[in-house]
Amino acid sequence: MENDLSSSGAHGRVLYPLPDEVTLELLQYADPLSIRKMRLTCKAVHRVTYERKLWTSTLDRLCDELEIFKPTFPMDKMTLPELEHAATAPYRFMDLVKLCSSPHGIYVIPFQSREHLQRMPGKWVGQADAEVVETHNFCLVPGGRFLIASWESELILWDLGL
């Protein structure tokens, strides 16, 4: 008897002998991007990665971990692609933030902004005087619409309009 993951079945050699239920249970503990990558391993895992139950539990767990207001996502009414998109959104957003923070990255320009000028000794300070700065202090407000960033003596609220 072989001690590897392969076994012989009625239709020949089976390389992935785990039942779908076990695979589903294991994938529920993976992050959403890893689930997408696991999709490429074999047909058996590929099939399980399209289970609605997997993406609802993944999104539910993500809401708990990131303190996202759960009613933001009406999971019972969302399609499978919408569930997968919502579950991977925080990772895609963080990748964009990291890209924008790099010296050779792109810069995110707001769709709309409201400028509040403040009086400083000798001049008015506004958006035109702003310079690109790197920040590591930011927080996505529960609900996912607002992002708060801070550096030095500034606090900035971004309306992501999602």
Automatic annotation (TrEMBL):
CDD domains membership: F-box_SF
Domain of life the protein comes from: Eukaryota
Domain F-box: 12-58
InterPro entries, alphabetized: F-box-like_dom_sf, F-box_dom
A Pfam family the protein falls into: F-box-like
Protein name: F-box domain-containing protein
Annotated source species: Coprinellus micaceus
Lineage of producing organism: Eukaryota, Fungi, Dikarya, Basidiomycota, Agaricomycotina
